[in-house]
């Protein structure tokens, strides 16, 4: 049975929630990773994926200026990095210097792949949509990369309060 309830009381039931890290080069030439919980595939033909970025985030301006970005699906071993990248601002620091992770150059866009992620997708900005307190960016996937370690598990937000971990069966 379903009962009507307030949004803020129901939304915690969404967990586990997938996590991605988007990497974009900002106007100062710094590669800025940002952890995001809202992402989805929007098309298979052509392949496209969307990310939602809050209006006040540093990465918004960088995506709109560069018009390209990487979407990485971090492994559970990257949980601490995902938490750091999602709670610190690239406006205030160079996140990859403060919390180094293994990276490699993207092949088709001016960004970085996260080497320990289970997958990376290089995207060119296709469209954007203001959705209230977030901007939805749709990227056309122009290159895809998979980690050769098939035992890696993805990291998810598993509960409110930035609690992250692997999810069994995923």
Question: How would you characterize the overall build of this protein?
Answer:
The protein is α+β, with helices and mostly antiparallel strands and 170 residues long. Helices cover 15% and strands 42% of the residues. The chain contains 4 helices and 12 strands; from the N terminus they run H-E-E-E-E-E-H-E-H-H-E-E-E-E-E-E. The chain has a 7-stranded antiparallel sheet with strand order 3-2-6-9-10-5-4. A 3-stranded antiparallel sheet has the order 1-11-12, with helices on one face. Strand 7 and strand 8 (112-114) form a beta hairpin. The radius of gyration is 16 Å and the shape is globular. The protein starts with 6 loop residues before the first helix and ends in a 5-residue tail after the last strand. The mean pLDDT is 95.
Structural class: alpha+beta
Number of strand elements:
12
Query: What distance lies between the first and last C-alpha atoms, to the nearest angstrom?
Result: 28 Å
Label the overall shape. Answer: globular
Strand line-up of the largest beta sheet:
3-2-6-9-10-5-4
* Largest β sheet strand count, sense and barrel closure: 7 strands, antiparallel
Counting copies of identical and different chains, the oligomeric state is single chain
Helix content range of the residues, please? 10-25%
Total of DSSP H or I helical runs spanning 4+ residues: 4
The proportion of strand residues reads 35-45%
Order of helices and strands: HEEEEEHEHHEEEEEE
Mean pLDDT: 95
Q: Using the CA coordinates, give the radius of gyration.
A: 16 Å
The poorly predicted ranges are: none
């Amino acid at each position: 049975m379903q009962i009507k309830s307030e949004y803020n009381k129901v939304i915690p039931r969404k967990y586990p929630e997938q996590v991605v890290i988007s990497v974009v080069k900002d106007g100062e030439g710094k590669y800025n990773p940002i952890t995001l919980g809202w992402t989805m595939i929007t098309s298979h033909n052509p392949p496209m994926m969307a990310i939602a970025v809050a209006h006040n985030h540093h990465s918004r301006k960088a995506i709109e200026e560069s018009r390209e970005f990487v979407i990485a699906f971090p492994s559970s071993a990257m949980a601490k990095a995902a938490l750091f990248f999602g709670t610190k601002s690239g406006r205030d620091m160079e996140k990859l210097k403060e919390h180094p992770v293994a990276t490699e150059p993207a092949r088709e866009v001016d960004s970085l792949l996260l080497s320990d992620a289970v997958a990376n997708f290089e995207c060119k900005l296709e469209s954007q949509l203001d959705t209230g307190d977030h901007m939805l960016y749709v990227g056309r996937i122009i290159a895809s990369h998979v980690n050769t370690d098939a035992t890696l598990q993805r990291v998810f937000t598993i509960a409110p309060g930035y609690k992250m971990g692997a999810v069994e069966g995923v």
